[in-house]
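Morning!

As promised:
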Amino acid sequence: MPAGGCLFVIVGTDDKPIYQAEFPEARSQRREDTLHLNQLTVIHAALDMVDELVWGTQAMYLKQVDRFNDFYVSAFVTASHARFMLLHDARNEDGVKQFFTDAYEAYVRLLMNPFFDSGAKVPASFDQRIRLLGKKHF
Amino acid sequence: MLKLRRPPCFSQLCAAQRVVSQSAFAFLFSEMIQYSQTRVNTADELIAKLEDAGVGVGRRALELACWRERSSKRETRALWKSLFGAHADSLQKVQDSDDEFMIVEKEPLVNAFISSAPVNCAAFVAGGRTPSPPESGRLGRRLAAAQFPAEVSAHDNEEGATVLLIKFAPEVLEREKRQA
């Protein structure tokens, strides 16, 4: 993840990761690998914070739930408890909130597809849409 | 030249609350029951089949109802009304039991045109007698989806009303106690 970039992960209702994306897209793949794993670990750790926070509020957007060194983790929980996690290194609350709201719409549309099962592969159109949103907001 | 267009439902479905005519729903529902009926041997299997059919509907309906509210709140109260157009007739707590609740419907929408049946076809709405992850049924699924694992089953009571009996899993009660 380059400076100013973000890592976005969706964890489904049954605690399975459904989707993952990075903005802007990583160019040098090799060096990123180890870094990438670390970042995923940060997000996984933040899931515990989400589980604690989620019963204290009715809001879907949980704001910043965790931080690790220079990274912030923001979270968003949908009605059926799918969790959107975003790892970012710049403070940008409005952008993040807007991104989550737009991503939620994309997710609802994805879910409305009767052929989409939560264990199934996420179609390319959803991936494109999320990347477009990432470009727009970050 | 004939141009193929994307079906409107997918792009517009999310936009506004739509109402489906009851006859259209009843027609599809009866076809579904007939289809299931030819593939089962016992009433229990039919119930299970109907519950299975309700699984996917529950989670989708919950997300859609919440999204349409546009309040970015995890509000699950509006769902029953958005599904059936009216609130349930009553919600009761089962006496001498902390974890059981009943939703009573005198004339459930799904049973409107079903005269007599060996099973209560509201099983489609109810469902899930197993509290394990493959919960089934619309309500079972919905509760599970909203992180309230519970067993839900449909029954007839003596006055002919349909009762959805909900039994919450013990961890839900524990969590509620912690919150309070």
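The radius of gyration of chain B is 18 Å.

Hope this helps with the figure draft.
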